[in-house]
Amino acid sequence: xxxPNTRAPESSRQGSIxxxxxxxxxxxxxxxxxxxxxxxxxxxxxxxPQDMPLDQLQQTVSPFYFRLITILDLHRLYRSWWFILxxxxxxxxIMGCLSQRLRRIPADWKGASGKSSFNISxxxxxxxxxxxxxxxxxxxxxxxxxxxxxxxxxxxxxxWENDRVQLLGFPFIHAAIIxxxxxxxxxxxxxxxxxxxxxxxxxASRFTVIPTxxxxxxxxxxAVDRFVLNRYPSGEPKEFRSDVRILVDGKEVLKDSxxxxxxxxxxxxxxxxxxxxxxxxxxxxxSIVNQSGESSxxxxxxxxxxQLQGTKYQLGLVSLHPGSAKRGAGVEINVQGPDGxxxxxxxxxxxxxxxxxxxxxxxxxxxxxxxxxGLQIGYDPGSAVVWVGCILLVLxxxxxxxxxxxxxxVVLKATxxxxxxxxxxxxxxxxxxxREKVKKEVHDSLHIRDNKVTPITQGA
Amino acid sequence: xxxxxxxxxxxxxxxxxxxxxLVVYIFGSAKSAARKCAFAGLILVWCVHTVAIGLRWxxxxxxxxxHAPLSNLYExxxxxxxTIALALILMRLRFGADVIVLLGLPLVFLVMAYTFxxxxxxxxxxxxxxxxWLVAHVMTCFLGYAGFAxxxxxxxLLLLSKRGDQLGKSLPRREILDExxxxxxxxxxxxxxxxxxxxxxxxxxAWGSYWSWxxxxxxxxxxxxxxxxxxxxxxxxxxxxDRTAILSVAGFGAVLFTYFGVNYLPGLHxxx
Lengths: 460, 272
Hints:
Chain A is an alpha+beta fold. Chain A has helices at about 10-25, 30-45, 55-60, 65-70, 80-110, 130-140, 170-190, 385-400, 430-445; strands at about 120-125, 150, 155-160, 190-200, 205-210, 215-230, 235-250, 250-260, 265, 270-290, 295-300, 305, 315-325, 330-335, 340-350, 355, 360-380, 405-415, 420-425, 450-455. Chain A contains nine helices and 20 strands.
């Protein structure tokens, strides 16, 4: 992006319009205004319910607000054209400031800017060579490394420069923001989010897109072999996972587990364990005690009946019963007699006594649940760009806050009475303290009382 | 549990510190020995506070459900109190402004006292919270909030310092208050940025979406935008004094809404 205000204008009027627009786009005032606008509109999006189906919204708010909200896209604010426009304006603003700053960095990097924020003069009876050692050791606390020494006709110039890399702090931080916005844009244009529910033992490749509700197809199938739920002793879920196989053209290509916080990624598409639902049973276990007192266990599967041994009764499952804290989990069964008569029963885990069917005693032991696992599907080709941006942002902060670009130049000149010492310097952060420390260290090492100090900038 | 008892003692310890600071401020403000005693008392209480947090971490492992004590409102409030106290101690070491400690400590006490209304039992982590990102995200966010809290106290004092009465005259110089307002935000801002980034990374692993404009995420961004405006206004436009103090107050309002307010809006973050 060009910055017209550095180009010579063709005619004064045309140049000034371009330069006005350019100034608007690169000004910090615009940046601050945009930051506030984004904040205010974002607040609005947390107060107005987002992505509510329109018919539900119509029932929630008055007709006036419904019209207002739908016209301005306030119900999908963060994807609305004007919000994206605000983000775009901010991006251009940052790019403008960044390009201006980047121009100045090569000169600052080479130290050619020559600016300094203070100037201190001393004079000393000793000669230049001796003072070189004195001053170098005096400044050891404030600058790292040995100075560059340049010989002049009548003396020496010693110069130090530390942490030049801090100049990269500002560009890193602002380029990072642009990268993050670009990554977000790529993700919203080319990415998708969806959800799918798969019963244990089944497979699926169709999923529902969030938030539109449209149905799409994945380039592979997800086969759920097992859903496992582990609980804490208190009963709350401790861990739940789906053991799945990924099938391409019917062939297994991957076998893994999906847990909360541990997604599975295949061909760039990620599957997340979101939730689960109890949908039935795999089998129910009962305990039977016959007239001789022998007990045995039987398993009954849904949609199947089991003949109770030694009788002409058929036992079949009807449904699970939610049960209660006192009685425990429950099951509803149907016992069909030889006469074709159906006798329904409800059994609970904590029942004190079994039910009697002829000479048999039947009690409910437990059931193996059958779950439907809820998986979320995500594809975001922009997320890699966003993470690069985040890393760059953190690096930028580290550079800006933990390094300090500082320079010191000491000009030593031989005079009739010894040498003159002129110290100039600059520090990006903590300027006053730097100046005072330089002054103090050199002053103490020279053991003199009088000196002249001229700060170049006000309140440097 | 021992850690819960310690938290109770620590809460009243901070209250005692407020009283000590008040006494020193009203009566012996010229005597630096009295001020140093009050500060030493604060550091002592804070150390016990640190032990209490560590102890709760250990206790959770002894119960077989080990996790960092950052998982619910009770634990996050205890941690928030700890970070604000730490920020006040650091500010006091750097700037010596006892009056900010005096006014910041009641904030710490309020936060700690609020925990008395919450269930203090250690509970096992639900699957969504079982992640290493939990520690990084919660810690960086609250350390950031603490910096903003100190800035808020200094900003309020700055805004009050124009008063010609006894209160206005007894406050530190406006330049120092202004410096504290700025530097505390300089401390909190990168931490909040890290907090948002680690939150986004965690959301990506848990829900497949690093940013879903959920009210909590959005309000943390709003907070970040307000403080970004503050930094740009100060560094690039030369704002200072009352104008930046107002921004600091607005920012802290956003912090409070991000922490407490969003729990009254529906969304994913309402674990509390």
